[in-house]
Structures are given as C-alpha cells and as structure tokens.
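Sequence of Endonuclease III (Planctopirus hydrillae).
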Amino acid sequence: MASAVRTKTADKQALLKKLHPVVKKLHKLPSSPEFPVLETMLYAVCLEDSPIEEAQAAYEQLRAAFTDLNEARVSSVTELQEALGSLHNSEWKAYRYKGVLQHVFDKNYTFEFEGLKKRTLELAQKQLVKIKSATPFVRTYTLHAVLGAHVIPLDESSIHTLVWLGLAMPGQNADEISESLKTTVKKAEVDSFCGMIRALATDSNLRSAFNKEVYPHPPEGFDAGTAMERLAELMKLGPAAYWEKLKKQTEPKGKGGPKSPKSEEKTTEVAAETSGKTRKPKADKPSDDKPVAKKVSKPPKESTEKAATSKAVSSTAKKTEKTEKAEKAPSTKAASKAASDKKSAKAAPSAKTAKGDAKTTSAKSKAAPVKKAGKSKS
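Predicted 3D structure, token representation.
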C-alpha cells in the first residue's frame, strides 16, 4: 500500500497562485452578496453545490415568487421547488429552505435573526447547530459571512475538488479540511479562495472528474505537485477520456511478456548464485540428540483376535488335562491297593504248606516271596 501524500503549506500556496489565473480565464469570480442573518442562511441553502451565478438567480426567483418569508414558510415543498427552477438538488434545497424559516419563526415568532451577530463564535455555533435543516456548509457560511470568523465553508463538491488537487486528504470532513487550510488561506482571502474552488468544482465540463462517486479517489491521496499538469490534461481530454488513460497507465503489465536479453542474463546469474549456495555441503555436526525409539506397528485387529482365541483354547485344554489326571490318580491308587491285597491272600495258604512240607525244594522257592509278602504286610 502506498504511503499517504502529505503536502506542505508552501506547496499549497504555490499551487493556489498557479491555479487562480487558470480558473479566472474559464469563469467569472463574482464576490459574495451581503444579506441579513436569516437571508444569509437562505442564500447559503441555494449556494450549496451550485455555481454562484445560478444560486443568485434561484434565490432572486424564490423571493419574487412569494410576497414575504411567511408565505414561503406556509407553502409546500413542491411550490418552493418550482420556484427554484433547475437548480441542482432543488427538492432538498426547498425542504431545507422551508425548515430554516420554520425554526426561526417557532423560536422568535418573527423572521428576525440579527441577535446572532452579538454572540461569540462558540455560542453562535451552538445556536446554529439546533437548526436541524441547516447543513454544516450553511452553518459555516453563516459564521464567516455574519461574524467574520476565520473558517472556510466547504460543501461536498468543493471537498472532492480539494482532494483531487492534493490540498486535502481522502476521508477528511469539512471541519478538518477547513482547519488544515487556515495556515494556507488567510482570513481576508477566504471569499476569493472559496469562489475559485467553487467555480472549478461546479464546472459542467469537469465536475464529474472530481466526484469520488464516479471516479474513486486513491486512499493515499493525490500529489499537489502534479495538480496543474493533471488539470491541463483533464481540460484537454475531458473526464471520461482522462480517467480511461489514467487507468491504462496504472494497470499492471502482463507477466508473460517477452524478456530482454539483459534481464535473462541477470536471472540466470541469480539462479546460478542461488544454486551454488544451495550445493555447498554442510559440515556434519555431532548431534546430542537421544536415539528415538521406533514406533512398533500395531498388528491388525483380526490377528490379535485369532491369537486371543487360540490362547484361550490352549489354556482350557491344559485345564481339562489336569482335571483328568487328578481324577485318574485315586483310581490307580485303589487298583494298586487291591492288587496288593490279592497277593497277600494268595500268600497265606502257601505259607502254611511251606511249614508242613519243608522237604521239597519247590516249597522253599515259594516260601521266599511269601516271607517277603509277610514282611510287607507287617
């Protein structure tokens, strides 16, 4: 974003000296008429955003259409608008004209408002603010014309023109611009300054070029140093052609256009330098970082489920084997006990025969296991 253009006081004064003779050739610069306080306000209503000649003619027509101010007060807005003729924004001006008359009459029951001259600037401002139909331009114009205050009355068209010339910044209101121009425009020069700016701002051939609604102003403002050159070109081409040319000059050029050989050489040199910088190997530095543990990939859900089921089956099988062994253990013990009882029963009669018949060798051979059985029995 471009920085805001700030114009020094000396540059503003130099611009105004160059601008005055140019505008004077195009338009007559009549002096402002003198009226009583209330009529000054009514004339300011007609003058806002209009040329001086047209405003004076419309005001005279309006006063001639009605016998007095009270008749104008009780008339409709449409009747007042017809009396204003082709004046710019005549409907709103008729409404404001009627509103000012109504406020003064309701306050004083007369159309005399000369007491404003006896008030200070601050009190006069407070009194004028109470008139809702009076615009900021009407109030400022009245304060300057009646009290001789060092204020610069500016309407909307004058503000647009001052911004275009570089004498004001975009976004400033009338009070801010008036305050900033006090060092440039002396109190005795306010009438001639406002007349010059008004003549330029309301020129039928140029006024659309200054209007920000038609041709938006750049946010950083205009350069006052180029104001005279821009104005000369605007007067030569007209608003539409001038802004079309300015638009083409400010449009960015296409990126795909042919490059000059010098630019190509520069780009290749830059590319080589950057590639050389990137190709330089970097020295390996010992890293004190601890080894990072590798992440163990988790097995899929199906395999884990199968493993869990197989494990459960094996554990149940082992349990069944243990229970079977435990059941078989007492039965084997009982069988061994029964076998030993049978052997002991057989051994009893053989022992008796061994005692009776000790001569035979076969009895001796049988007696040995019998004794063993008897010993085991005891």
